[in-house]
Inverse folding.
């Protein structure tokens, strides 16, 4: 019987286990060569890299438990769950983004011939004309890819608002970081940390912090990244034999409101002008840019009543004279009372502080009152 | 020694009962699908189950997805948990070690036997799934192309090599459970305790994957990448999670087998 007198085996096994467990920790804290450069220069590099080609595998993680479901469940999932994505980006008009699940995948491809959406579990391919760049729509998984999210959040950043962060390794590649601390007091976003691939300047990690938060409410990062133009074969799509094919996508909530809502959003809100969308001007309005963005949606009463019920039982809901509001991390939701906004329930949502939401509701109520007095 | 252990394992009736039970669940699922014609709603069932109505051959892969989360690891835990503790409980371990057999060699032989059980189990699930799928579900020609998860057409050759890789990946994924059960089997003289301990690891790991607060831990729990074999049927093949899954399982296997070896080699065997 060998071994009974060899007590060194346990220390050897424990030492080996500790060493193996320490490897990922050591890789994570391993310093990346190169001193932090100027954040302003990095901001310029990131802007210059916008639209460049890349491909990779990414994961976004949201910690925002929005208390809404039904029409908004896709947004709740995006901001409150982990989303695994594969992306092939040739340019802003030619790309493919796959949302992965253990059961299948939902693939969206923007091609010169149109936009294809493939849903494996539904065995359905949907083709729409155009390049998939709808001016206004519900958020989708592709919006959470680091280059897209960074482009949106940094669009109004100035060199004075950014500071350097220590470099880190993302997807095995050195990446330089900057922190944006927005100057807009109405924004609920306290900081946006962005790391950009050192070789290409393309953002590879984005972390969004709400005011007072010690951990990001939303983070997205590449696990594999290659700043190269994807092969055409990875982008092309032909519907497989036997698959159901639909021409024209069903309108999402935003599309439905634009067509059927009778509410016309005001030309400005909180001093931000409404972004122009053609051909529809009713139903939905988008205001602000960068880290302060507000969406205004005129909900039909049935949908509004359903949403109101959900908000009323939500943790932290605040009852205002103009409606009810809830703030989850950097995302604010406010539903106005139709009695004070001329019979129209407005959903105000975006990256506004609670005070900003209340101010928006107050402004909408004042506008409605002025219109009624004018009519009277 | 290895041959002796393999012979002993595969001559046991309960080994084949376990394999049979393992195949029973996917067979029931196939029959129910065939009788009712009701495929799971998108996102509600195991991978590929919605597609088997059109092509029964795909049930070979769907069957893997059916048994992988629970039944397969339970069977592996039961067999591996019995490896050493079963000998101790029946009083044969002492006599085994009286022979000029090193403890390390015995442990290696037990490990090989458990690994062989895992491989045989996975292979039978795939083969039985294929046959049952062909008989009970869509009887498209065997040479018919398969639609990948990404919506491209895969030739039978592509499906074949991807399925071989999937079998290898699932088999390797189960070795972590086998190593845990084997380690516990060296700690206790009760095979049930060893099996239940390994199952507790499995259940705890699966539970952690559903808890948001445990997200920082999730990349390190043993069940994290098990279902990633589906990535082999994407186009192009996604190897990221497969690589991570293999690496993670390798660490669990090395550490737990090391612990089993350290414990067994220094243990006082009294039964």
């Amino acid at each position: 019987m060998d071994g009974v007198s060899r007590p060194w085996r346990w220390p050897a096994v424990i030492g080996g286990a500790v060493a193996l467990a320490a490897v990922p920790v050591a890789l994570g804290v391993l310093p990346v060569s190169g001193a932090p450069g100027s954040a302003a220069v990095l901001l310029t590099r990131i802007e210059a890299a916008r639209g460049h080609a890349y491909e990779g595998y990414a994961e976004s993680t949201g910690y925002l438990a929005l208390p809404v479901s039904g029409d908004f469940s896709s947004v709740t999932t995006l901001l409150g769950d982990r989303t695994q994505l594969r992306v092939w980006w040739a340019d802003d008009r030619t790309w493919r983004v796959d949302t992965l699940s253990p059961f299948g995948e939902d693939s969206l491809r923007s091609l010169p011939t149109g936009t294809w959406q493939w849903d494996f579990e539904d065995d359905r391919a949907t083709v729409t004309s155009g390049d998939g760049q709808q001016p206004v729509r519900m958020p989708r998984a592709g919006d959470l890819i680091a280059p897209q999210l960074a482009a949106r959040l940094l669009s109004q950043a100035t060199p004075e608002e950014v500071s350097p962060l220590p470099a880190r390794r993302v997807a095995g590649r050195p990446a330089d970081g900057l922190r944006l601390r927005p100057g807009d007091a109405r924004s609920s976003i306290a900081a946006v940390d962005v790391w950009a691939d050192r070789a290409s300047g393309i953002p590879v990690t984005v972390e969004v912090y709400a005011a007072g938060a010690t951990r990001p409410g939303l983070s997205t990062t590449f696990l594999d990244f290659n700043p190269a133009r994807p092969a055409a074969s990875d982008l092309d799509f032909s519907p497989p034999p036997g698959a159901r094919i639909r021409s024209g996508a069903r309108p999402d909530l935003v599309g439905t409101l634009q067509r059927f809502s009778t509410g016309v959003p005001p030309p400005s809100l909180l001093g931000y002008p409404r972004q122009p969308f053609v051909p529809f001007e009713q139903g939905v309005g988008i205001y602000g840019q960068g880290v302060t963005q507000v969406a205004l949606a005129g909900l039909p009463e049935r949908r509004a009543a359903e949403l109101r019920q959900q908000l009323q039982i939500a943790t932290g809901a605040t009852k205002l004279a103009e409606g009810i509001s809830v703030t989850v991390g950097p995302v604010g939701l406010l539903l106005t009372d139709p009695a004070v906004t001329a019979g129209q329930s407005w959903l105000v949502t975006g990256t506004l502080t609670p005070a900003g939401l209340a101010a928006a509701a107050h402004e909408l109520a004042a506008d409605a009152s002025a219109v009624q007095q004018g009519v009277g | 020694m290895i041959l002796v252990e393999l012979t002993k394992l595969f001559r046991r009736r309960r080994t084949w009962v376990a394999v049979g039970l393992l195949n029973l669940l996917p067979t029931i699922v196939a029959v129910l699908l065939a009788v009712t014609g009701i495929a799971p709603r998108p996102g509600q069932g195991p991978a590929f189950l919605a597609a088997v109505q059109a092509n029964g051959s795909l049930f070979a892969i769907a069957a893997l997805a059916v048994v992988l989360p629970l039944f397969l690891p339970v069977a592996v835990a039961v067999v591996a948990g019995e490896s050493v503790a079963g000998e101790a409980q029946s009083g044969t371990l002492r006599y085994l070690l009286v022979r000029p057999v090193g403890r390390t060699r015995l442990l290696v032989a037990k490990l090989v036997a458990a690994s062989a059980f895992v491989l045989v189990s996975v292979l039978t699930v795939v083969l039985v799934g294929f046959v049952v799928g062909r008989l009970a579900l869509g009887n498209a020609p065997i040479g018919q192309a398969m639609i990948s998860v990404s919506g491209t057409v895969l030739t039978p050759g592509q499906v074949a090599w991807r399925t071989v890789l999937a079998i290898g990946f699932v088999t390797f994924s189960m070795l972590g459970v086998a190593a845990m059960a084997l380690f516990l089997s060296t700690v206790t003289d009760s095979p049930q305790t060893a099996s239940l301990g390994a199952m507790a690891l499995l259940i705890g790991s699966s539970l952690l994957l559903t808890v948001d607060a445990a997200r920082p831990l999730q990349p390190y729990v043993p069940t994290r990448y098990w279902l990633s074999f589906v990535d082999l049927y994407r186009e192009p093949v996604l190897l990221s999670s497969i690589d991570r899954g293999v690496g993670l399982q390798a660490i669990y296997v090395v550490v737990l087998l090391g612990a089993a070896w350290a414990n067994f080699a220094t243990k006082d065997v009294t039964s």
Notes: Chain B has one domain: 2-265. Chain B is about 65% helix and 0% strand. Residues 103-136 of chain B form the longest helix (34 residues). The mean pLDDT of chain B is 87.
